[in-house]
Amino acid sequence: MNISQSWWKILGAILVIYSTVYGFLSSVPALPILHESIRNLYFHVPMWFAMIVLFTISVFHSIKFLNNGSEDSDLKAVQSVNAGIVFGILGIVTGAIWARFTWGQAWSFDVKQNFAAIALLLYFAYLILRNAIDEEQKRAKISAIYNIFAFPMMVVLLFVLPRIGDSLHPGNGGNPGFNAYDLDSRMRMVFYPACAGWIIIGYWIYTLLARVTKLEKKKTL
Amino acid sequence: MKSLTTTFVLLLVSIQLFAQPQESAVVDTLAGSEKIYVVAACALLILLALLFLLFSVDRRVKKLEKKSEGK
């Protein structure tokens, strides 16, 4: 392993290990209902951040594909969506587990849950759209355009619409969560490394998927 | 007769004490201990998903290895 090329993987691993250990051991503010489950901030929330970064990478490669038409950019766009969906599903399932014990129901049709599910469905639709078109250049072009439109929709679904309706989610509508009063400095010391670490691990997974797919497409191996 | 009816009615009333919703042992454990097991379950889920991903990539690499050996 070449350290000058792989240092960021080690950094990601260290950050994730740190945030997992201190996620369980560090002290947290005592809040009603949440109790210790507030520690899910270090596990559930970074999943969504990793997903958003991976989808951003996908949009970047889709734009690149529309500029240069290279097969490689198309492949990278798909694989980052694949990696992003894994994190999205993890985010929604860890959210449902948490909701079961704080809201009383795994799926209470809360606006935040519903819109997060719709955002994921947008990206499932992207993969289905790709499978529906046989011609390679056409498939790449149409799905690149779809991807560019799906991204701002996803951002609106996750960050704008849940704030308009009443959501139980922490940070929405006066519920304790991601704001200056509750996220104290002790939690920031774990939360930010957790986000950075999981984003790096997510990027690593995407590069692995892209490399394997690239090799699979090569006919002369 | 009256006392028998009273006893019967009181017995009926007491039945609802046994009809408390019985949660499963897993749900009780997760809800107990200040909900720390909820976090543990989520961390475990993330770990399992990553391991599953590792296995799937492993399978694909194995296929590639076989393909390159054949040449």
Task: Explain this structure.
The complex is a heterodimer of chains A (221) and B (71). Chain A is mostly helical. Chain A has one domain: Four Helix Bundle (Hemerythrin (Met), subunit A), CATH 1.20.120. Chain A is built from 6 helices and no strands. Chain B has 71 residues and is mostly helical. The mean pLDDT of chain B is 82. Classes of the chains: A mainly alpha (221), B mainly alpha (71). The interface between A and B is medium-sized, with 29 and 24 residues.
Reported for the largest beta sheet of chain A, the result is: none
Poorly predicted regions of chain A are none
As a percent range, the share of helical residues of chain B equals over 70%
Greatest contact between two chains: A-B, 29 and 24 residues
Largest pleated sheet of chain B: none
Number of continuous helical runs of chain A: 6
Architecture per CATH nomenclature, i.e. the level-2 architecture of chain A: Up-down Bundle
Q: Give the integer mean of the pLDDT values of chain B.
A: 82
- Average pLDDT metric of chain A: 90
> Beta-strand percentage of chain B?
under 5%
Supply the CATH class of chain A. Mainly Alpha
Q: What count of domains describes the coordinates of chain A?
A: 1
Describe this structure in a few short sentences:
The complex is a heterodimer of chains A (221) and B (71). Chain A is an all-alpha fold and 221 residues long.
Question: What labels describe this entry?
Answer:
heterodimer; A: 221 residues; mainly alpha; Four Helix Bundle (Hemerythrin (Met), subunit A); 6 helices; 0% strand; B: 71 residues; 83% helix; rod-shaped
What topology does this entry show?
The complex is a heterodimer of chains A (221) and B (71).
Chain A (H helix, E strand, L loop, with lengths): L2 H23 L18 H25 L2 H32 L8 H22 L3 H29 L20 H33 L4
Chain B lengths: L1 H17 L6 H7 L4 H35 L1
